Structures are given as structure tokens and as C-alpha cells.
Amino acid sequence: MVDISMRLKFSRYRVDREPHIRVNYANCRTCKQRACLTACPAQCYLPRQEDGVVFNYEACLECGTCYIVCDRGALAWEYPKGGYGVSFRFA
Ligand code: SF4
Fold first, then answer.
1. How large is the C-alpha radius of gyration of the chain?
2. In the CATH hierarchy, which top-level class contains the domain 13-78?
3. Which of 36, 42, 51, 65 is in the most buried spot, having the most CB atoms within 10 Å?
């Protein structure tokens, strides 16, 4: 089994002030499954106690999984602008 934490040690991030993923929280709060919580390998989504999620884009791996699993259409997703985002295998 792949240890993702070991692999993430070699990732570097250049974070843009503008998030490349935006969450429509009104749609998000109607979701009971919250698949993004378990699907995101970087744990960018954390549960709010009552409903919905808290999202932090800074550690995003740009895999697109959250966009695929969100059946509420709550995400506007695009890659970060040029020069921003994650760099893999940066050793
Ligand atoms: Fe997490 Fe991947 Fe979505 Fe980024 S694109 S927030 S790493 S699931």
C-alpha cells in the first residue's frame, strides 16, 4: 500500500491568493454524503459539525477527485494559474 504522507513530503506548493476551487456552500449544505471528506487525498475538506464542509485549497494536489465525487454541483474547479499550485517529486 502506498504511504501518501511519504510522497507528500516531496511536494511543494506555490499558493495563489485566488483559490482555484470554489465551493458553493449553499449547495454543499444540502449534501448528506459529503464524499469529498473521504475522497480528497490531501484532506482539504473538513466536516462542519452540523452540515457542509470547511475547505482549504492550499494543500490541493490537483487530482480532480472532489469535482468528480460531488453530486451537488457545488464545486467550480480549475487548475491554478501558471506558476502556482503543487509541484511533485521536488527533492
Ligand atoms: Fe483534494 Fe484532489 Fe479536490 Fe484538490 S482536487 S481538493 S487534492 S480531491
1. 14
2. alpha beta
3. 36
With a 6 Å cutoff on the Cβ, whether 44 touches ligand 1 is yes
What is the distance between the alpha carbons of residues 3 and 46, in angstroms, rounded to a whole number?
21
CA atoms of 42 and 61, how far apart (whole Å): 7
Q: Tell me how far apart the alpha carbons of residues 48 and 55 are, in angstroms, rounded to a whole number.
A: 10
**C-alpha grid cell for residue 70?**
460531488
* 50 CA to centre of ligand 1 in angstroms: 22
- Identity (one letter) of the amino acid at 57? Y
pLDDT per residue as tens digits for the range 12-40: 999 999 999 999 999 999 999 999 999 99
**Domain map of the chain by residue range?**
13-78
